[in-house]
Structures are given as C-alpha cells and as structure tokens.
Amino acid sequence: MTTADLHTLTGAYAVHALPDGEREEFERHIADCPACAQEVRELTATATRLALAVSVAPPPQMREAVLRRIGTVRQEPPAVARQERRGAAGLLGGARRLPRYVLAACLAGVVALGGVAVWQHQSADDARQRADRVEQQAAELSRVLAAPDAATATRKLDGGTTATVVVSRSLGKAAFLAAGMPTPAAGKTYELWFDDAGTMRPAGLMDPDATDQALVLDGRIENASGVGVTVEPAGGSQRPTSAPVAVVTFPEAAGV
C-alpha cells in the first residue's frame, strides 16, 4: 500500500473498520505522520459525539407521567400572530445555541414516547438536566480525544469486542471506548479500574445496556499503567470480585 493510500484511511481507522493487517500498517504510518494522527483524533471525537447522540434514553417513568396527565391538562389557546413569531424565533434561537448531539438526544427521547408531544414541567426539567450531564460528559471526552498529546491503544477481545484507550498525560485523564461489548448477566455491570502496578483502583461504571460506548475514566491517571474491566454486581464494587475480562495497557504519549 502506498503512502498516498494510507493518508485516506483516517476515517476507517477512527471507527475501527480496518482489517488487522491494514490497521497495523496504518498505525506505523501515523507514528510518523502528525497530520494523519491529528485527523484521527478529530474524527474519533466526532464519532464519539455521534454515538452519544443516541445513547441517552428518557427515564421509563416519563412516558407514564405524560400519559397520566394528558386528560387533566388543558390545551393552550391559540396565540396571536406576534406571539407566534416571537415563540418561533425563541425556539429557533435556542436550537442554534444547543449542540447538535444534545438536540438529537432530546429528539430521541420524544420518539421513544411513541410520538406523544405533551411535556410537563417536571419532565422537561429532568430532560434538561440529563441533557446537561450528557453535554458535560461529551465535552470532557472531546478534550481528552483532541488533546495534542493524546495517544491511542486498541485491543481486540474475545467475542469480537474492540477496546480502545485514549490517554492524555498533560490532562492526567484517559478515555475508554468499547465496540461490541456483550450484555452482562442480569444484575451485573462492567466496572473500569486503573491498574496501579497490579492494584486496581475504581475508575467508573459502564452502561450494561450499551454495546458501544465511550467515557472518560473517573479520577486521574497518576501512576496507572493501564485500565482493566471486570464484571461486578450492579452499582459496582470497591475492589474487583472477578477476573478481568480485559486489560489494556496505556500507550506512551504521542510523539514519544
């Protein structure tokens, strides 16, 4: 494969779509190509934002609350033309201010309600709080993925799962991205751990219902050499109660 061909593989590499041989060749290429390395970081951040756009579901009780109150809430009277114009401008202005992935999350919530378009005050507050949390998580994830010293390591696990860690030592943070994670048994969840010379330090919980996800590990890297994943009881554990299903060693800083 020519160097020109390798320059075109940044997108496929960012979404883990390269076969093993091409992936290894491309990884050797980006070690000496800062432009492609930067493009991979940016494309990975974008792909993560798109994934997060569909990863947020409304709480189950929201549908029940809306349907319960439909018969008791009076319909608003038609607004006059001026109010309609002002209302439309306000909605459009709000849409311009919100990031695309937050809007997508809100729309996904509406679709999940079966087309019901009645939003009560408390439900709307809950949705806004969830959207704010998603926005904060996505912003933190993007900082790690787009950091100038971000370094990436990918490992194929049993069953076809792909696990990727992205480390920024200047930020002291690491992100974990998984594709094709099998669903754990009922009452179980995946827990992440910093590997501190063989001692596991809690680093956050994964969503047991999501096969593809990306999140920033809780806490700072400090002296950790990698990240481990174990299956734990719902809610997590203070110490691992099972053997790791995966351990991914942190890569060296970009450019090292």
From TrEMBL:
GO terms for cellular component: plasma membrane. GO terms for biological process: regulation of translation. Residues 6-42 form the Anti-sigma-K factor RskA N-terminal domain. The keyword Lipid metabolism does not apply. Residues 103-245 form the Anti-sigma K factor RskA C-terminal domain. It is found in: Cell membrane; Membrane. The keyword Transcription applies. It comes from the Bacteria. It is a single-pass membrane protein. GO terms for molecular function: sigma factor antagonist activity; zinc ion binding. Keywords: Cell membrane, Membrane, Metal-binding, Transcription, Transcription regulation, Transmembrane, Transmembrane helix, Zinc, Zinc-finger. PANTHER family: ANTI-SIGMA-K FACTOR RSKA (PTHR37461). This is Regulator of SigK.
